[in-house]
Amino acid sequence: MTKRGIWIGAAIAIAVVVVVIVAYLVWPREAPAAQPAPTPSPAATATPTPTPTPSGPPANDTAYDQGDLPIDDVFLVDAALPVDDDPTGEILPLTASPRDAAGAPVFADPSGEPIAWLPQEQTYGGTDLPVVEMHESWVKVLLAGRQARAGEGDASQVVGWLRVSDAVLTPNDVVVEVDLDAHAIDIVTGDGSDQSRERIADDFAWGTEATPTPVGRTFVMHTEVVPSLAYTRGHPIVYLGAQSSTLAGFDGQDVAVTAFHYHDVRSGAISNGCIRVDADVTSRLAELPVGTPVVIS
Asked: What is the pLDDT at residue 54?
């Protein structure tokens, strides 16, 4: 090839390269597919802490002192004291006692004003009480005392209400069960599958038809040895919160309290309402704390 031919070939090659480059730069190209915009994550919403819904009667935050309120004890007779309206009902595994050394007000119902005053301690007990109903602000308890004397009205077991804020609540899962028909006394501990039953008596004496042993739920009010009561032979008497339905008083006293006690004659319906048992039974019952529920059926 001549020198001139070489230059012409080179020029043509350069021209082709230029055309290719220009075409690449100006040729329309497909735009890249649009990417979908990310969906924003919903803002995290904090779960509010639930406010507990108050249960039962509303709280009463009024400050009270004893003032003219009568002391609730075994001697109290007051028409304002409610008789237990469910004597075969539930008993919770709790006892209640006044939190403050000065004592606590007792209410006939949570919507009213106090009807009595419960000291923290008193001579014949009655300040450690079984709980039979519980709400957020209130507990219903068995009480000592009577609405009326026998022969003048209903002398059955009485109840009342304490504010939870006024009470010390103590676990107690022990119940004494007395079956008058089966002539059996059991100490029952626990509940459900964890329940244990200890038979402590399979014979005893109870009240006559004229002076029956009160039936229903009551509690151990006070335990004491009383040497002057010779028939007990020096064994402890376990006094209960229930009183006679037919005797206004007994043995010169203005009370007719039901009790477990020793007696040489102790079988059948022969007593003035008390439950006569042997020495071993009185000793076993005397080991129970005051406030222990007793159910007589």
From this structure: 60
For residue 285, what is the enclosing H or E element? helix 279-286
Residue 110, CA distances (Å) to 61, 162, 295 in order: 11, 8, 26
How many residues are recorded in the chain? 297
Phi-psi region of 72 (alpha: psi -120 to 50; beta: other; left: phi over 0): beta
Distance CA 152, CA 173 (A): 36
Average pLDDT score over residue span 10-37: 42
Distinct helix (H) and strand (E) counts, the chain: 2, 17
Position 53 scores a pLDDT of 54
Which region among 31-45, 157-171, 183-197, 256-270 has the lowest average model confidence (pLDDT)? 31-45
Domains, the chain, with CATH or none? 94-171 (2.30.30), 174-296 (2.40.440.10)
Please give the single-letter amino acid code of residue 207. G
**Residue showing tokens 């709280």:** 59
Residue at token pair 């200890």: 198
Question: Which of 85, 108, 106 shows the shortest CA–CA distance to 97?
Answer: 106
Phi and psi angles of residue 22, each rounded to the nearest 5 degrees, phi first = -60, -45
